[in-house]
Amino acid sequence: MATTADFKNGLYINYNGKPCSIVWFQHVKPGKGPAFVKTKLRNLENGRILENTFTAGAKIDTINVERRPYQFLYKDEDGYNFMHEETFEQIHLDEDLVENADLMKEGQHVEMMFLADEERCLTCELPTYVELEVTYTEPAVKGDTASTNALKEATLETGAKIMVPLFINQGEKIRVNTTDRSYGERVK
After folding, report:
1. For the chain, which terminal residue's Cβ has fewer other Cβ atoms within 10 angstroms, N or C?
2. Is 99 left (phi over 0), alpha (psi -120 to 50) or beta?
3. Distance of alpha carbon 119 from alpha carbon 39, whole angstroms
4. CATH number for the domain including 21?
5. What is the rounded distance in angstroms from the CA atom of residue 63 to the CA atom of residue 38?
6. Cβ(114)–Cβ(122) below 8 Å
7. Total domains present in the chain
8. What integer best gives the mean pLDDT of the chain?
9. What's the CATH number where 138 sits?
10. Predicted TM-score (pTM) of this structure
């Protein structure tokens, strides 16, 4: 058990029966009335941001959340299969738990967040940048555009489609930002 005095960014709490993380908080002491704490909480199961106000000194249930390294093995009709990098234990996740799964190739290292008391997986996160090969893109024609930031669609080795600059050709390796699915840079 903790109180609102123990709040800090990144603290994991149980809010309305759901695991949440404190993203932002502010202690407020108005001139009239009791003090309170305004917070923004991230629901760890679905990523939604919730706003809530706690009265100062309210008791809060903290939870134990662990981050563990896993490696993506393969995808089958039921979902995705991963192996823990230290214990070699294998687990299976449904498609809805893996964000940007189409940017993940076999052997990819990921980090999973587990609710330690229940041994339940909450999220599966790819690294911020992944390196993938462009398997198909239309060739650029000189003089196609007047602007310098023109983009075209490219299909990557995992089947994902993203927008890339005109100078990217088929067969090149590129770095892709997994948070917004954007082109980062060419990989040499």
Report:
1. C
2. beta
3. 27
4. 2.30.30.30
5. 20
6. yes
7. 3
8. 91
9. 2.40.50.140
10. 0.78
